[in-house]
Prior knowledge:
It contains four helices and 22 strands. The chain folds into two domains: about 10-160, no CATH class; about 160-469, no CATH class. It has helices at about 1-70, 80-100, 285-290, 325-335, and strands spanning about 100, 105, 110-115, 120, 125-140, 150-160, 180, 185-190, 220-225, 235, 255, 300, 310, 350, 365, 380, 390-395, 405-415, 435-445, 450, 455, 465. It is α+β, with helices and mostly antiparallel strands. Helix 1 packs antiparallel against helix 2. The relative contact order is 0.16. It is elongated.
Amino acid sequence: MLVNMRVKKNISRRKNQRGVIITLVAIFMLFVIGAMAALSIDVVTLYTARSEAQLAADAAALAGARVLANSGATSDTSGASMSSAWTLATAVATQVAEQNQVAGVNLTAAQITFPAGAPGGTNTNPTITVKVQITNLPTFFARIWGTTSVMVGASATAEAYNPSGASALGPGATATPVAPMCVKPWLLPNMDPTQQPGTPTPQKIFDAGSGAIVDPGLIGQTWPSTNPGLNTNGLFAVCGDCSVPPFPPPKPGQYYPVAMDNPTPAFPTPTQALPACSAGFNSYQLGVAGCVQQTISCGANSAINPSTINIDPNPYVAMSGSRDGDTVQAAGCLIHYNLLGGVPGDSDSIDSAAGPGPSYVPPFQFLGGNQNPVAGAVNQTVLVSDSLVTIPVIDATAFINPINPVTVIGFLQVFLNPQSTGYLPALPPAGTNQIQATVINMAGCGTSATGQPILGNGPSPVAVRLISP
């Protein structure tokens, strides 16, 4: 009996011990799970902050690259204007980054750096790298291990891509084409538009084969010009009605009108987001005042169409008496300048730090005009403007009658202004129907460009893209 009593006591003691162990394990697991949950909250917070920092860096890099693209500096193969453009680009990138929050707090200028200290890439394809770093991101539950803050950082690199520089890579190098949208229905011949129409051998804008820029000094030049020996005419059509063959030979500074809607889908008539002043316009005028959403690529071997388009061979029915009259009317609508009652200052203008002189000097900035539709933009610096338009340049030279279809070998980005606010005189007298234009950017890819085009920065022929992983 004594033995049985001892066995019973041992069994009872073991049962009690098992209950204690289960309780201790439950309490231990509670602490472990709690600690893991607390740690996971800090980890999620850390990864969220890391994602926010990356988004801020991406946005800042793209904004800085866009400044470089719109500044005209990528068309200066010497790189002489890049220093000023870089200063402006980093200032804008900093402002954009400061509008972003990480962990609920706006970034400060001290947390935004540019590690390279200068643009990377090449003169025509500059890059900007932005680094965002927060050194004191507070923790919550990790404090129990003595960690009160952690560091979070991210970086991004963006490029302003101008295909004109591909020829500098060596013999046989070919450009990747670009394909901007909102291109205007004007086909500009490959001739320096500032030269006199009767120039025996007009200088080209691009090398027709490689797309290289022939004269970077064309940036900032305006036609009509007051300089002796330069073009005293503005932008107007070589043939207002080009229905009588053959098409006349090209002249510097004049354009061939595009065949709208024919063949499709080269230049389809815009149907959306048209300005109110375009009511009653014909298809061609809508192409000027609105945005043709179809992307237009350059290069005969582009992987998308259309890189070949047609000069309008159809009889033209004008709304205001002539093709040029229609053009001026539609352009006035586009840039918010009422030709019947407008005054200088209604449309946007180029803000030139250099002041009056032979040409405007990049980097270009623009001032909002009195009729700028963006609230608060009047007399303020704006990065984009409706007066800034892109014109396709075709493989057509002096004394040769072009034939359809024509090949786009590059783009000229120009600033339209019906009446200069600077040193240039007003347009020619009313009735001549010409537009004053200033060259802001050049992007050439020549006939040799091949492959899938890079979509432009909206209407800009200089594309902006993130190139960091």
